[in-house]
Amino acid sequence: ARAAAKLQHPHVVAVYDADQFNGQYYIVLELVRGGSLQDVLKTGPLPWIEATRVLADACRGLEVAHRAGLVHRDIKPSNLMRSEDGTVKLADLGLARPNEPTGATMTGSGSVLGTPQYMSPEQCRSERADERSELYAMGATYYALLTGQPPYPGEAPLLVMNAHLLDPIPDPRDVDAS
Q1: Which terminus of the chain, N or C, has fewer Cβ atoms within 10 Å?
Q2: What is the mean pLDDT, run by run of 10 residues, along the chain of 178 residues?
Q3: Stated pTM of the model
Q4: CB of 29 within 8 A of CB of 13?
Q5: Among residues 74, 85, 174, 176, which one is catalytic?
Q6: Is 130 a catalytic residue?
Q7: Cβ atoms 92, 70 nearer than 8 A
C-alpha cells in the first residue's frame, strides 16, 4: 500500500491511506464506480477498438508503476477498473514489489503469486517477474477483452500454467473470427 500510494496518475487507482485498527489492517482506496473490466466481460467481448483503448489506458498506468520501480504481478481484467467517464485505471497493487533481482516470486507458504490464466511463463516457473512479464499479462488480458475468455481457460491452476509454458500461443480469431 505504501508503494502504491506513491503512484499518482489518472490511470492508477489512488491509495489514500493504510493502517491498522483493532488488529485489522485496512487500505483506503479511490472509489471507482464503473466496475472492473471482468464485470464488463460478463456481457461478452469488447469491440477491438474499445479493447485497444482499454489496454492503452492500462499500459499508461502500468508505465507509471514501472517508472516507480514496481512490478504489479497480477495484471488481469478484474484488476482494471473503469471510471464513470470511461477512463481505465490499474488497480490492486497488493502483489506489487520493487523490481529487483532478489524480488519475491512466491509466498512464504511456497504458493506461486498471480492468477494462472494471465501469468507469464516465468511466473509459472516461479521465476522473478519483471516488466516483460507484465507485457505478457497485458497481452493475455487483451486476448480476454477481444474474445471474452483468457488465452488458456481452465479451473486447474497447474494445467493452465503448463499451457502457458508448453502450448502454442492461441489465435484470438479461432474464438472470434472478427
Answers
A1: C
A2: 73 86 88 92 95 96 88 90 93 62 44 82 88 93 97 93 95 93
A3: 0.85
A4: yes
A5: 74
A6: no
A7: no
